[in-house]
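hi support,

uploading two proteins for the ticket. first:
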Amino acid sequence: DTVRAMWAAFERFEFAAAAPLLHEDFVFEMPQSRERAVGRDNFIAINAEYPGRWRITVMRLVASGEQVVTECDVTNGEVTVQAVSFFTLKDGQIMHIREYWPDSM
């Protein structure tokens, strides 16, 4: 539910609404581009300030305990890409996201 709520807030462009879903020690990583954001406020700011209006559709969500994986279609109306995100939760909040954006074929 927590991960779905985060994606729903992002889909509505209500990034600040997602902040309470993130743990105070939150970390975001994108290994392909070597990007890393430490802290929920930094992660929210990055997404709120990212150019364009990207829409997110959760295609698949798999959960086991405190681990959740989502596969999402992300589009700005001209380009559609897929993202795979690995979430770790702690105390009902998102503690860590490790995200991959595979190349489109």
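and the second one:
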Amino acid sequence: AWTPDPEITQAGDLMEQGKFAEAATILNNYLAAKSDSVEAWSLLRAGHWQRSDIPAYREATVTLCGLHLRAREHEAAWRDYEEFLQLGGDKMPPAIWLDLCRLPEEQQDFERAVSEYEKLAAAYPSERHSVMAQLDAARVSLKRLNRPQDALRLYEAAETSAVPHLDLEQDIESGIREARNVLGQAKSFSAGASDAV
């Protein structure tokens, strides 16, 4: 049977007694050695909540979100993200956020995926993750939402980004070509349709 680490048990007991500082010291020491302990982070986060330390609670939530993503616990990660937003958080770290954006896409919630990708790109315009988010948003807009105009706008934004992206150049160029082709076909189809009338 699984038993929790004695440090975590001790910290939990101290918290129940209202001894937050002592509990936090134990947990922080524990996390210095085992930074990926979901249990320790959850307990620390609970302590921040009880002390109404919202910024620290939000930070712990970001860390837990990343740990849940790494463990492929997607529902827990998304709950962390929603909680982060409800507590006034606006910018997740870009690597975590990019992984989060992929969750609604996997669940076929393409509108939400594009919206998240675009928010990430806007929040970190000078980061490589923003270019990757623009490409993902463009791909979903083109392939899943049939919005070639949006896709073209996103591909072109990625193309003109000041962030170095030579390795993505091919994806960007082929995306722009594909979006333009789809737009061209739509125009010639509507022109043909109006000629037939």
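thanks. also noticed: The chain has a mean pLDDT of 94.
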